[in-house]
Amino acid sequence: MDTISDNAKPSTAKHTFWRNQFAAKSTLAQTLFDLLIGVVAPVVLVLYDPMVFNFMLIEIRVFCLAAVFNGILVLATWLGLRRRLGLAGGFIAGGLLFSSLFAVYIAFRTIPLFVMAIIMGVIPFTEPGQHGMVKDSLWFIAMGGLALVPTLTAFVFIRNCYRSCNWTVRSKLRELVLFGILALLGLITTSVLPAITQDWTTKFVSRSVDLVVNGDQQAGRLGIENLQRSFWCTVECYDGIVLGYMAEDDPDRQSYLALAYHEITGDDIQPRVELFSQERD
Question: Cβ–Cβ contacts within 10 Å for residue 90, how many?
Fold first, then answer.
């Protein structure tokens, strides 16, 4: 009778670490990691981001914030429902694909920040007499950790996009076609909505600034109120008022624009004026 040797290899090879990361079945640890890095960490990054969305990508800040929100919503839906979505998982797969591409783009932009922050954080520990700067070093290292978040988030979205495709696709041609249509619809929806939001908010702010700079008192008041409600804005949104102030020859009109700027931002207009004057020189 045949016997099995004690040294014989098992019929199913043990998954390597990376194969396990993309295995069909998600472990509890992987699900918790995905929730932490794909849902919680992006919120922290948006709230405490010192440079990425508020400086490096300021021109498309609203698009980025909307894309982050979409990604969180899509990933949370997938992690919560998974197989229960059925073929509707194709729509989620398309959304996860866009979120993966967006996260890769943000990761590419933030990796230099990660390297720079880590270097700045380590330098005080390597130079004599610099140990008093420990707090600054820890701050740089913490910022470096935040800069690494998009890279980890990209991995989370890529993994879940891969799994959603594997779990949703069926062998029947009709189901494959339906999956493809839903995935394309999900990709278009999650990419177009942030673009529409960016376009609308940009035009809304531009019109409101124009009302303040060029409108009469009633129109100016409407513009001020609109800008006060524009919670997504940073100081750059109001630079049109600063430029209008600098181009204005009427002292009374300048005073009005300075007061409007202060009412909107809570800050004095002069530091911004000086900044623009220095850039022109």
Answer: 25
Q: How many CB atoms lie within 10 A of CB 174?
A: 9
Distance CA 216, CA 238 (A): 18
Q: Whose CA is closest to 211, among 203, 201, 199, 219?
A: 219
Cα distances from 163 to residues 23, 90, 207, in angstroms, run 8, 11, 45
Report CA-CA distances (Å) from 193 to 57, 154, 184, 205.
18, 20, 14, 18
SS (H, E, C) 43-103: HHHHHHCCCHHHHHCHHHHHHHHHHHHHHHHHHHHHHHHHHHHHHHHHHHHHHHHHHHHHH
Half-sphere exposure of 259 (CA within 13 A, CB side): 9
Q: What are phi and psi of 263, to 5 degrees?
A: -65, -35
Asked if 79 and 160 count as a contact pair (C-beta separation under 8 A), the reply is yes
Tens digit of pLDDT for each residue in 79-102? 998 878 887 888 999 999 999 999
- pLDDT digit string, tens, across residues 260-273: 999 999 999 999 99
* Closest to 65 in 3D by CA, of 86, 42, 88: 42
Cα–Cα nearest to 205, from 61, 67, 82? 61
pTM: 0.80
